[in-house]
Amino acid sequence: MIQPSDGHGITISGVSKVYAGPARPAVDDVSLTIAPGEFMTFLGPSGSGKTTLLSMIAGFTTLSAGSIRIDGQDVSRVKPHRRNLGVVFQQYALFPHMSVYRNIAYPLQQRKLPKAEVAARVAEVIELVHLEAFADRLPAQLSGGQQQRVALARAVVYQPRALLMDEPLGALDKKLRDQLQGEIARMHRELGMTFIFVTHDQHEALTLSDRIAVFNEGSIEQVGTPTELYEQPRTLFVAQFLGESNTFTGLDRDGGAVVVRPERVVLHAGGDTVPAGHQRIEATVVEVVYAGNHHRVGLRFPDGVQGSAMVLAGSAAPGAVGDSVVVSWDPRHQAVVADRPLPAGHESPTEAVVRAAADA
Ligand code: ADP
Ligand code: MG
């Protein structure tokens, strides 16, 4: 029986990967602790080192430095199939000549499990991914989303210590992607297994994850819950990679940049006043885009910097292109970020500001 497990912890310590050729390491001295049962996402742009790190955890790529432990056991030099990890890639990689049933049974037969147990476990995961009606089909007779469900079922059927997924939804269209996202979240709840999920899609990361590690040029810039990363980004890169933001470099005395999200910004028509203590700045409306439940208002600030505000349908009029407006926000909703990564353990400018306010 597939039981909700306690999950297994994974500790990455000072891991680097230097490929022959490129001057810069693909993964540069990365440390990260993934808790048992956690849904951890590696998020970052293409080429930032996500796949390389995942591949080192899986055992397909050797480490240039550092170590990887699972439940405290150093697996850095253990062969992939002995690490007991489930892996799903973007391309389905199913056996084309085998039925759905046989594809899923394969890893159990490799492990020489008794026939009755194989049948019971396969039936269980086929139910988990809702493919009961498709057990006898060949992969070519399935849609892309169904094929990826088979890959997920095959990756968890032997109860691996963790499930590693590299952009598993990348080849699907938006509707299927949303559907499978929900399925993956449900699988995680039901299995209680440690999941590591790689994506370059911030929405996917924000929706699915317990915590997100944001990758940039081979390093992790920040690790945190979706809320922490969105509300308290520590660097300009994190602020700009996750969601939209208005960025002001002149407002912070200590040289950080002030970042505020479009939905926290208030537009003032002539007449209404900015509450005391709120930040205020003048702007020109350069674009108004209707988006159903809100208007997105493009703004240009006096220093030429572009930004945006979100005006919910039913609230104030969004204004028109060319309007001069006053923009304000509550400083509690802004973050002050460094424009480069902070050393580990160093507090961010926001934390310093918050601490100074608390001390005052
Ligand atoms: P991501 O998954 O975030 O897109 P990758 O881990 O695939 O990033 O790649 C990180 C960097 O390492 C990139 O600069 C990429 O070109 C380089 N790289 C990846 N695989 C190899 C390889 N086998 N040989 C040389 N360079 C590689
Ligand atoms: Mg990749």
Automatic annotation (TrEMBL):
Domain ABC transporter: 10-242
Assigned keywords, A-Z: ATP-binding, Nucleotide-binding, Transport
GO molecular function: ATP binding; ATP hydrolysis activity; transmembrane transporter activity
UniProt keyword Transcription, yes or no: no
GO cellular component, as recorded: ATP-binding cassette (ABC) transporter complex
A Pfam family of this chain: ABC_tran
PANTHER family in the cross-refs: SPERMIDINE/PUTRESCINE IMPORT ATP-BINDING PROTEIN POTA, SPERMIDINE_PUTRESCINE IMPORT ATP-BINDING PROTEIN POTA
Protein name: Polyamine-transporting ATPase
Species this chain originates from: Acrocarpospora pleiomorpha
